[in-house]
Amino acid sequence: MPVLRALSKVAKQTLLGTPGCSCQPLTVAVRNISFSPRQVTSDASFHSVSFSETDHPKVLITGGLGQLGVGLAKMLRKKFGKNNVILSDIRKPPSSVFHSGPFIYSDILDYKNLREIVVNNRITWLFHYSALLSAVGEANVALARSVNITGLHNILDIAAEHGLRLFVPSTIGAFGPTSPRNPTPDLCVQRPRTIYGVSKVHAELMGEYYHHRYGLDFRCLRYPGIISADSMPGGGTTDYAVQIFHDAIKSGKFECNLRPDTRLPMMYIGDCLRATLEVMEAPADTLSMRTYNINAMSFTPEELAQELQKQMPELEVTYDVDHVRQAIADSWPMNFDDSNARKEWGWKHDYDLPELIQTMLNYLSSETRVARAS
């Protein structure tokens, strides 16, 4: 390190070679300084690792015990091998998750811990799912700011330092009341009114900045509301579309916290996870942007209830509007324009509303029968 050698030489001359000085010699400790993207130069450039057809990426998923992480890990392990996909979270996993493949403790607010995980496990792909969702974030803004923004900065720096391919999900919540709502294009005004939305716009822009400034291979999808059968609602505004299935099977009654005419874009989790893998595998030269809308269907609580009642005529649906969640929903897109994703990397959804309902009912009914039998 030329700079350090020069500094050491100057220090020795200053402390030991000053004429007429009666001072005792001092020892100057010089510490080797490793690179950190927090100290990048203006011409720094990073590139993600490329893989041959026989190689597989080594994957880390943060926030892995949320709605999407476990399903993503299962899909990626089938494709890349069980030991090549590490699930992580700050919570203790259930036995089924713990025994299904590698799981480690990872706190995204602990920069040193994250670096050690990436280095020790030779991570090449990182899926960053740690975040506080919309309604939960509004109830604890300070925590949401810490997790969603400070945690993201740690992830970006580590991804840049180690040349990772990084995926960070965004959301319909990244738009606000001044955005065009039906449809909402990829590029338009974004002025969200929630800390969750603000943090996601921040993630989109920071990821694109790191890509253009440092060459970080950053990729991002704006998810619509995601509906899955194997995880419980986690505090999001669109969670009514998951809760209705659980309540319909359990009690035959459902109370919705949004108005019956509240239209929002939605997607089945299978489509969501497939889209995530497809954009990560897409050749970089096919991507004209780093953040894309994806969509599958758009419906209201009333339309969902009516379609579900075709399968369960006895279902009773009532409405008790939560004004906080309703205000959030009213500021979000009613429908996504995802034409760029479909054109550039071949995105195409498989599930429309009828297929979604049949899949959800089949899964939850099967789970209920197994639970009763045991």
Automatic annotation (TrEMBL):
It catalyses: L-threonine + NAD(+) = (2S)-2-amino-3-oxobutanoate + NADH + H(+). Its EC number is 1.1.1.103. Residues 59-294 form the NAD-dependent epimerase/dehydratase domain. Pathway: Amino-acid degradation; L-threonine degradation via oxydo-reductase pathway; glycine from L-threonine: step 1/2. GO terms for molecular function: L-threonine 3-dehydrogenase activity. Belongs to the NAD(P)-dependent epimerase/dehydratase family. Catalyzes the NAD(+)-dependent oxidation of L-threonine to 2-amino-3-ketobutyrate, mediating L-threonine catabolism. This is L-threonine 3-dehydrogenase, mitochondrial. It comes from Dissostichus mawsoni.
